[in-house]
Automatic annotation (TrEMBL):
Tree of life domain: Bacteria
Gene3D superfamilies membership: Coenzyme PQQ synthesis protein D (PqqD) (1.10.10.1150)
Protein name: PqqA binding protein
Keywords, alphabetical: PQQ biosynthesis
Quaternary organization: Monomer. Interacts with PqqE.
InterPro entries with a match to the protein in the record: PQQD, PqqD_bac, PqqD_sf
Functional description taken from the UniProt entry: Functions as a PqqA binding protein and presents PqqA to PqqE, in the pyrroloquinoline quinone (PQQ) biosynthetic pathway.
Pathway entry: Cofactor biosynthesis; pyrroloquinoline quinone biosynthesis
Amino acid sequence: MSATRSALSADSRPRIGPGFRLQWEPAQDCHVLLYPEGMVRLNGSAGEIMKRCDGTSSLAAIVADLEQAFGTTGLEPEVRGFVELAAQQNWLRWEA
């Protein structure tokens, strides 16, 4: 079942959707999502989340890694919100 049809849980393992490629773009000084029709320029937070969406890390692990990397807590609602938005755009997928 695709991400847009299944509930996101702490155990969900998001990954970059088919047809998209995440990369650092020095000319843009940011992470971008490349796809056949163009490019999506990601802000810093979005890039940090997306680069952790490798299909092996759970949402809970991604949140924990971000909180450790940035020395903060309470990021789960924002990360979950972004991941859900990214799934609506087909940038991310996960299996139920």
